[in-house]
Specification:
Layout: H1 2-14, H2 24-35, H3 40-80
């Protein structure tokens, strides 16, 4: 089991492909606004990116908490019997 986990970790971290892809629309929008002197749109895009980045982790946290509570209840019912 440990060997499998080590191999999976090596696979994911060892075979990364560097990408520099960006949303073409976002990049064009930021470049256009910065050239016109408006730098506030960059802060808004950064906030949106952080929001999109955090959501999967929050969903995983909620699922983990619900799973933990259900396992704890199940374990307490077994201990009572």
């Amino acid at each position: 089991m440990k060997l499998k986990s080590v191999l999976v970790i090596i696979f994911f971290f060892g075979f990364q492909v560097t990408t520099w892809a960006q949303c073409a629309m976002c990049r064009a929008s930021v470049e256009n606004n910065v050239s016109n002197g408006d730098t506030t749109i960059g802060a808004g895009l950064n906030t949106g990116i952080l929001y999109l980045f955090a959501m999967p982790y929050l969903i995983a946290l909620v699922i983990g908490l619900l799973w933990y509570r259900a396992a704890k209840k199940r374990k307490s019912k077994i201990a009572i019997r």
